[in-house]
Specification:
Elements lengths: L19 E6 L2 E6 H10 L1
Antiparallel strand pairs: 1-2
Length: 44
């Protein structure tokens, strides 16, 4: 998977879970990496 904001590849765990988060944008879910998650949580 790729991050919706920075377009970098998101790392996955051995159970194929992303090491980031999903953010809801209206009806759609966006995948975000850890770096963008930290940056976005400080701005909101």
């Amino acid at each position: 998977m790729k991050c919706e904001l920075c377009k970098e590849k998101i790392e996955e765990t051995f159970l194929e879970k992303i090491s980031g988060t999903y953010i809801r944008d209206g009806k759609h879910l966006k995948t975000i990496c850890n770096k963008c998650q930290k940056r976005e949580s400080k701005t909101k």
